[in-house]
Write a structure and sequence with these properties.
Low-confidence stretches: 1-9, 358-367
Strand content: 5-15%
Number of helices: 13
Mean pLDDT: 82
Distance between the termini: 49 Å
Strand order of the largest sheet: 1-2-3-4-5
Oligomer: single chain
Number of domains: 2
Radius of gyration: 38 Å
Helix content: 55-70%
Structural class: alpha+beta
Length: about 375
């Protein structure tokens, strides 16, 4: 059973090797739960003749220690398994085997009495090996073999018999160690390739976005500047009104290059009208919008464009400078107005709240 609680850690904290082997996944938690139920049922069946209360306390304590070790090995983050966690899990497995074996009857009364503790220890320590600590797993297995040998001699079952019950588990230990030595590097390489693919996808997306911007600007240049450039190439004569339109067009194209963040129809039209009235308009973009989240950047850009268009429509002469500030500043954008009858500086924060140079908030559209 996979526990849904605040203790659970994210996949990024577990490590790519642990994630590749599915350690901590729901199916593995389910299988470990099934094994725990089987352990408990076999213990009750094989030890049905045990009558001493202290023996049952020892058997139950061994079961609890195995459960704690299993939860720890599946739920602990880090790859390889942290040294402190490795010591705890190994110590729990050794202590659980010792508590269980020395709580059995002397000599054992059922052939299956030693199966649950030895099998559980092998599974726990195999996971320790898979999680990058094969040496610690083998040392703990050796301690368990020594304990089983001593128990066999004390219980009159025979020291060699006590040792023999632990030997089949070493086959699983070998498999776990092979997993650690051979498959862990492969799992790490798989995740490295995935990260490389994600980086390449990000680069491709950035290149596609740049190509889209370039195509849009080329289309705008073709639509607005081609007729004028064609007439210039043909050495045609321009009347005064046409010269004015050509200069306005040149300024608009320059805005699209120097202030791409303000290259919106509402700003283009307002700047065109202001320049027709004789206002000197300068639009600059130093990248402040690019540092915002995509959704926030879109909203801020639309609100800024509306506010800038209103300020441009209010100007009748002088100079208006609109600048999107560099990333990292408290002010997102500023609009400076320098006319014969007034000089103002309006600054916009990241919430698009405008403030004059005196710090007084002013109304803004789109808020």
């Amino acid at each position: 059973m996979r526990r849904e609680c605040p203790r659970a850690v994210d996949d990024s904290e577990r490590g790519e090797v642990v994630n590749a082997f599915g350690i901590g996944s729901r199916p593995l938690w389910l299988m470990m739960g099934v094994f725990a139920c089987g352990y408990f049922a076999v213990t009750l069946y094989a030890d049905s003749t045990v009558t001493g209360w202290w023996q049952w306390i020892g058997l139950f304590a061994g079961f609890v220690l195995f459960v704690i070790a299993g939860i720890t090995i599946l739920d602990s983050p880090g790859d390889p398994l942290p040294s402190s966690t490795t010591l705890v899990v190994g110590g729990l497995a050794v202590a659980a085997v010792a508590a269980t074996l020395f709580s059995l009857p002397f000599p054992p009364s059922h052939v299956m009495q030693t199966g649950p503790p030895v099998g559980a220890s092998v599974i726990i320590l195999a996971f320790v090996a898979v999680r990058g600590r094969p040496l610690a797993a083998w040392l703990a297995s050796g301690c368990i073999s020594v304990i089983a040998t001593v128990w066999g001699a004390v219980s009159t079952a025979g020291a060699l018999w006590g040792l023999s019950i632990t030997l089949p588990g070493y086959a699983i230990m070998i498999m776990g160690s092979l997993f650690s030595v051979m498959l862990r590097p492969m799992a790490r390489q798989i995740y490295e390739l995935r990260e490389a693919n994600e980086r390449q996808a990000a680069l491709d997306a950035a290149a596609a976005a740049s190509a889209e911007v370039r195509d849009r600007r080329l289309a705008a240049l073709d639509e607005r500047a081609r007729p004028v450039l064609t007439r210039i190439a043909r050495r045609e004569t321009f009347v005064a009104d046409e010269v004015v339109v050509a200069r306005l067009l040149e300024a608009q194209l320059r805005d699209g290059i120097r202030a791409s963040g303000l290259d919106l129809p509402v700003v283009r039209d307002a700047a065109w009208r202001a320049r027709q009235r004789g206002v000197h308009v300068v639009l600059l973009d130093d990248g402040g919008l690019a540092a915002l989240d995509d959704a926030l950047a879109v909203t801020a850009r639309e609100r800024l464009a509306t506010a800038v268009a209103e300020l441009l429509d209010e100007a009748d002469d002088g100079r208006v400078t609109v600048r999107i500030q560099p990333p990292g500043r408290d002010v997102l954008a500023s609009v400076g107005l320098d006319a014969g009858h007034r000089t103002d500086l309006v600054e916009f924060d990241h919430r698009m709240v405008p403030r004059t140079d005196s710090g007084r908030e002013t109304p803004a559209s789109g808020r």
